[in-house]
Protein backbone atom coordinates (compact mmCIF):
# COMPACT_ATOMS: atom_id res chain seq x y z
CA UNK A 1 0.00 0.00 0.00
CA UNK A 2 1.26 3.46 -0.90
CA UNK A 3 -0.05 6.01 1.59
CA UNK A 4 -0.07 9.34 -0.23
CA UNK A 5 -1.37 12.71 0.99
CA UNK A 6 -4.03 14.74 -0.74
CA UNK A 7 -2.74 17.57 -2.95
CA UNK A 8 -3.55 20.46 -0.61
CA UNK A 9 -2.13 18.87 2.52
CA UNK A 10 1.02 17.78 0.72
CA UNK A 11 1.65 21.25 -0.68
CA UNK A 12 0.95 23.21 2.51
CA UNK A 13 2.48 20.97 5.16
CA UNK A 14 5.58 20.39 3.04
CA UNK A 15 6.36 24.11 3.05
CA UNK A 16 4.79 25.50 6.22
CA UNK A 17 7.26 26.11 9.10
CA UNK A 18 5.73 24.48 12.19
CA UNK A 19 6.72 25.43 15.70
CA UNK A 20 7.69 22.10 17.25
CA UNK A 21 5.56 22.84 20.34
CA UNK A 22 2.42 23.83 18.41
CA UNK A 23 -0.37 21.42 17.46
CA UNK A 24 -2.34 23.82 15.23
CA UNK A 25 -1.75 24.91 11.63
CA UNK A 26 -3.93 26.75 9.14
CA UNK A 27 -4.32 25.94 5.45
CA UNK A 28 -4.96 29.15 3.52
CA UNK A 29 -6.29 28.89 -0.04
CA UNK A 30 -5.06 31.74 -2.19
CA UNK A 31 -7.48 33.63 -4.43
CA UNK A 32 -4.88 35.94 -5.97
CA UNK A 33 -1.55 37.45 -5.00
CA UNK A 34 -3.19 40.09 -2.78
CA UNK A 35 -6.09 38.35 -1.04
CA UNK A 36 -7.02 35.06 0.60
CA UNK A 37 -10.49 33.61 0.54
CA UNK A 38 -10.57 30.75 3.04
CA UNK A 39 -8.56 29.25 5.88
CA UNK A 40 -8.92 25.78 7.38
CA UNK A 41 -7.68 24.91 10.86
CA UNK A 42 -5.98 21.54 11.28
CA UNK A 43 -5.22 20.07 14.69
CA UNK A 44 -1.97 18.09 14.68
CA UNK A 45 -3.17 15.60 17.28
CA UNK A 46 -3.59 11.97 16.27
CA UNK A 47 -6.98 10.69 17.57
CA UNK A 48 -5.64 7.13 17.76
CA UNK A 49 -2.50 7.98 19.72
CA UNK A 50 -3.55 10.44 22.41
CA UNK A 51 -0.92 12.05 24.59
CA UNK A 52 1.82 11.50 22.02
CA UNK A 53 4.11 14.09 20.55
CA UNK A 54 4.32 14.79 16.84
CA UNK A 55 7.56 14.45 14.94
CA UNK A 56 8.38 16.75 12.01
CA UNK A 57 6.07 16.39 9.02
CA UNK A 58 6.97 14.69 5.74
CA UNK A 59 4.83 15.25 2.64
CA UNK A 60 1.82 16.09 4.79
CA UNK A 61 2.30 13.18 7.20
CA UNK A 62 3.28 13.04 10.87
CA UNK A 63 4.72 10.26 13.00
CA UNK A 64 3.36 9.76 16.53
CA UNK A 65 4.73 7.53 19.26
CA UNK A 66 3.93 6.47 22.81
CA UNK A 67 4.85 3.50 24.96
CA UNK A 68 1.18 2.52 25.28
CA UNK A 69 -0.14 3.21 21.77
CA UNK A 70 2.91 2.39 19.67
CA UNK A 71 3.73 4.18 16.42
CA UNK A 72 1.15 5.79 14.13
CA UNK A 73 1.57 7.61 10.81
CA UNK A 74 -1.18 10.21 10.47
CA UNK A 75 -2.33 12.55 7.71
CA UNK A 76 -4.07 15.45 9.51
CA UNK A 77 -5.56 16.72 6.24
CA UNK A 78 -7.39 13.51 5.32
CA UNK A 79 -7.43 12.11 8.90
CA UNK A 80 -6.16 8.79 7.59
CA UNK A 81 -4.10 6.89 10.16
CA UNK A 82 -1.97 3.77 10.01
CA UNK A 83 -0.74 1.92 13.12
CA UNK A 84 2.60 0.25 12.63
CA UNK A 85 3.29 -3.27 13.93
CA UNK A 86 5.13 -3.50 17.22
CA UNK A 87 8.87 -4.02 17.07
CA UNK A 88 10.01 -7.40 18.47
CA UNK A 89 11.54 -7.19 21.93
CA UNK A 90 15.21 -6.20 22.05
CA UNK A 91 17.83 -7.16 24.62
CA UNK A 92 17.03 -4.14 26.78
CA UNK A 93 13.37 -3.78 27.73
CA UNK A 94 13.39 0.03 27.70
CA UNK A 95 15.81 1.42 25.10
CA UNK A 96 15.99 5.08 24.15
CA UNK A 97 14.03 5.49 20.91
CA UNK A 98 14.45 8.09 18.17
CA UNK A 99 12.12 8.02 15.17
CA UNK A 100 12.29 9.18 11.57
CA UNK A 101 9.69 9.29 8.79
CA UNK A 102 10.67 9.67 5.14
CA UNK A 103 9.42 9.24 1.59
CA UNK A 104 11.53 6.98 -0.63
CA UNK A 105 11.07 8.55 -4.05
CA UNK A 106 12.50 5.54 -5.88
CA UNK A 107 9.47 3.44 -4.95
CA UNK A 108 7.12 6.23 -3.83
CA UNK A 109 6.91 4.58 -0.41
CA UNK A 110 6.83 6.00 3.10
CA UNK A 111 9.38 4.46 5.43
CA UNK A 112 9.65 4.75 9.22
CA UNK A 113 12.93 4.26 11.06
CA UNK A 114 13.49 3.48 14.73
CA UNK A 115 16.91 4.17 16.23
CA UNK A 116 17.42 2.31 19.51
CA UNK A 117 20.10 3.01 22.10
CA UNK A 118 20.38 -0.07 24.27
CA UNK A 119 21.89 -0.44 27.72
CA UNK A 120 24.76 1.33 29.46
CA UNK A 121 27.26 0.31 26.76
CA UNK A 122 25.43 2.56 24.24
CA UNK A 123 24.79 -0.20 21.73
CA UNK A 124 22.81 1.20 18.79
CA UNK A 125 20.37 -0.63 16.53
CA UNK A 126 18.12 0.60 13.73
CA UNK A 127 14.97 -0.89 12.22
CA UNK A 128 13.07 0.19 9.10
CA UNK A 129 9.41 -0.29 8.20
CA UNK A 130 7.82 0.31 4.80
CA UNK A 131 4.27 1.60 5.21
CA UNK A 132 1.84 -1.05 4.02
CA UNK A 133 4.06 -3.98 4.98
CA UNK A 134 3.82 -5.95 8.22
CA UNK A 135 7.41 -6.15 9.37
CA UNK A 136 10.49 -4.30 10.57
CA UNK A 137 13.84 -4.88 8.86
CA UNK A 138 17.09 -4.51 10.79
CA UNK A 139 19.60 -2.00 9.37
CA UNK A 140 23.21 -3.22 9.36
CA UNK A 141 26.36 -1.44 10.57
CA UNK A 142 24.75 1.18 12.81
CA UNK A 143 27.28 3.44 14.59
CA UNK A 144 27.00 3.45 18.38
CA UNK A 145 25.79 7.01 18.88
CA UNK A 146 23.10 8.84 20.81
CA UNK A 147 20.87 11.13 18.70
CA UNK A 148 18.78 14.14 19.63
CA UNK A 149 15.09 13.29 19.35
CA UNK A 150 13.90 16.89 18.89
CA UNK A 151 14.35 17.04 15.13
CA UNK A 152 15.42 15.22 12.03
CA UNK A 153 15.56 16.18 8.35
CA UNK A 154 14.83 14.41 5.09
CA UNK A 155 17.33 15.62 2.47
CA UNK A 156 18.58 14.03 -0.76
CA UNK A 157 16.61 10.83 -0.12
CA UNK A 158 18.17 10.30 3.32
CA UNK A 159 17.02 10.82 6.90
CA UNK A 160 19.38 12.80 9.14
CA UNK A 161 19.71 13.06 12.92
CA UNK A 162 22.11 15.15 14.98
CA UNK A 163 24.15 13.13 17.47
CA UNK A 164 25.30 14.11 20.94
CA UNK A 165 28.87 14.11 19.61
CA UNK A 166 27.81 16.79 17.10
CA UNK A 167 28.01 14.57 14.06
CA UNK A 168 25.16 13.89 11.64
CA UNK A 169 23.79 10.37 11.27
CA UNK A 170 22.37 9.69 7.78
CA UNK A 171 20.27 6.80 6.51
CA UNK A 172 19.66 6.40 2.76
CA UNK A 173 16.04 5.30 2.34
CA UNK A 174 16.65 3.56 -0.99
CA UNK A 175 19.75 1.47 -0.31
CA UNK A 176 19.00 1.42 3.46
CA UNK A 177 22.61 2.14 4.42
CA UNK A 178 23.58 4.28 7.41
CA UNK A 179 26.69 6.35 8.18
CA UNK A 180 27.87 9.38 10.16
CA UNK A 181 29.51 12.53 8.81
CA UNK A 182 30.72 15.85 10.15
CA UNK A 183 28.68 18.86 11.22
CA UNK A 184 30.23 22.34 10.86
CA UNK A 185 32.89 23.23 13.43
CA UNK A 186 31.65 26.43 15.02
CA UNK A 187 30.05 27.97 18.07
CA UNK A 188 27.07 25.67 17.40
CA UNK A 189 28.71 23.44 20.00
CA UNK A 190 27.89 26.06 22.64
CA UNK A 191 24.22 26.30 21.70
CA UNK A 192 21.68 24.22 23.64
CA UNK A 193 18.94 24.51 21.00
CA UNK A 194 19.74 22.90 17.66
CA UNK A 195 17.41 22.09 14.80
CA UNK A 196 18.04 20.15 11.58
CA UNK A 197 16.11 21.31 8.52
CA UNK A 198 15.77 21.03 4.76
CA UNK A 199 16.19 24.53 3.32
CA UNK A 200 15.90 24.66 -0.44
CA UNK A 201 16.97 21.03 -0.70
CA UNK A 202 20.07 21.60 1.43
CA UNK A 203 20.83 20.02 4.78
CA UNK A 204 20.85 22.84 7.33
CA UNK A 205 21.39 23.41 11.05
CA UNK A 206 19.89 26.24 13.05
CA UNK A 207 21.30 26.88 16.50
CA UNK A 208 20.34 29.39 19.15
CA UNK A 209 21.32 30.28 22.69
CA UNK A 210 19.69 32.74 25.06
CA UNK A 211 22.90 32.72 27.12
CA UNK A 212 25.09 34.22 24.40
CA UNK A 213 22.09 35.90 22.69
CA UNK A 214 23.05 34.50 19.30
CA UNK A 215 21.60 32.39 16.51
CA UNK A 216 23.37 30.76 13.60
CA UNK A 217 22.19 29.16 10.39
CA UNK A 218 24.50 26.77 8.55
CA UNK A 219 23.74 25.25 5.14
CA UNK A 220 25.56 22.39 3.39
CA UNK A 221 25.47 23.73 -0.17
CA UNK A 222 26.89 20.55 -1.73
CA UNK A 223 25.42 17.45 -0.16
CA UNK A 224 27.87 15.24 1.72
CA UNK A 225 30.72 17.71 1.20
CA UNK A 226 31.84 18.95 4.61
CA UNK A 227 33.83 21.75 2.98
CA UNK A 228 30.60 23.27 1.62
CA UNK A 229 29.11 24.11 5.04
CA UNK A 230 28.33 27.83 4.86
CA UNK A 231 27.29 30.16 7.67
CA UNK A 232 24.63 32.41 6.19
CA UNK A 233 23.23 34.18 9.24
CA UNK A 234 24.53 35.27 12.62
CA UNK A 235 22.07 37.32 14.64
CA UNK A 236 22.54 38.93 18.02
CA UNK A 237 19.94 40.69 20.10
CA UNK A 238 17.09 38.77 18.48
CA UNK A 239 17.44 35.06 19.09
CA UNK A 240 15.44 32.99 16.62
CA UNK A 241 14.46 29.36 16.95
CA UNK A 242 11.82 27.07 15.55
CA UNK A 243 12.27 27.68 11.83
Considering the chains and any ligands shown, give keywords for the structure:
243 residues, mainly beta, 2 domains, four-stranded antiparallel beta sheet, F-box associated beta-propeller type 3 domain-containing protein, SCF_F-box_component, F-box-assoc_dom_typ3, F-box-assoc_interact_dom
Structure notes:
It contains 1 helix and 18 strands. The protein has one helix spanning 7-13, and strands at residues 24-30, 36-43, 53-54, 62-66, 70-75, 80-83, 96-104, 109-118, 123-130, 137-139, 147-155, 158-163, 167-172, 178-182, 193-199, 202-209, 214-220, 229-236. Mean pLDDT is 75; it is low at 1-21 and 239-243. A hairpin with a 6-residue loop joins strand 9 and strand 10 (137-139). By secondary structure, the protein is mostly beta strands. The protein has a 4-stranded antiparallel β-sheet, with no helix packed on it. The chain has a 4-stranded antiparallel β-sheet with strand order 7-8-9-10, with no helix packed on it. 3% of the residues lie in helices and 49% in strands. It folds into 2 domains: 1-50 and 183-237, no CATH class; 52-152, no CATH class.
Amino acid sequence: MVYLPNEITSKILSTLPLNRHSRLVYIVEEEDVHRYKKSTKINLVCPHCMGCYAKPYVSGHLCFFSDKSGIHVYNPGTRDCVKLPDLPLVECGHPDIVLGLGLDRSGNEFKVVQLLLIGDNLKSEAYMHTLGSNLWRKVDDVPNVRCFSASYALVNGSLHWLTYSYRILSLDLTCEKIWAHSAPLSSLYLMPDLLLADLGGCLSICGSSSIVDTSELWIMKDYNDKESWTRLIIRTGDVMFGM
